[in-house]
Amino acid sequence: MGCHGEDGSGSDAFPRLNGQNPPYVVNQLMNFKTGGRTNDNKGLMQAVAKRMNEQEINAVAEYVTTLKEAE
Questions:
Q1: What pLDDT is attached to residue 70?
Q2: Which pLDDT score is estimated for 1?
Q3: How would you class 58 by CB atoms within 10 Å of its CB: exposed for 0-12, middle for 13-18, buried for 19 or more?
Q4: CA dihedral defined by 16, 3, 40, 27, rounded to 10 degrees?
Q5: Whole-prediction pTM value?
Q6: Most buried residue, 2, 33, 52, 62, by CB count within 10 Å?
Q7: Would you give the DSSP letter of residue 12?
Q8: Are 29 and 60 in contact (CB under 8 A)?
Q9: pLDDT of res. 71
Q10: Looking at residue 2, what is its pLDDT?
Q11: What is the pLDDT along the chain (71 residues), one digit of tens a residue?
Q12: Per-residue DSSP letters for 28-53?
């Protein structure tokens, strides 16, 4: 929430999360975790994802689907 915003809308530095589907989010988090994706700012997402287990990654992916754009 601190990086991507409370509604997941992102910013100039961090991408939008709201509207993403769970399989995509899981895939991207797994890519960060395994080093398959390395284009994150200063390795922040890699560090976060490496500390997450599969259940936590799935929970984050499901949570992202609940985010709505601010009106």
A1: 60
A2: 76
A3: middle
A4: -50
A5: 0.86
A6: 33
A7: S
A8: yes
A9: 57
A10: 84
A11: 788 988 999 888 888 999 899 999 999 999 999 999 999 878 999 999 999 999 999 999 999 989 876 65
A12: HHHHHHHTS---SGGGHHHHHHHT--
51's tokens:
């500390």
Q: Residue holding tokens 């999360």?
A: 17
- Is residue 32 within 8 Å of 47, Cβ to Cβ? no
Altogether, the residues listed in the chain come to a count of 71
- 28: amino acid identity, one letter: Q
For residue 32, what are its two tokens?
A: 């960060």
Token pair, residue 28, equals 């991207």
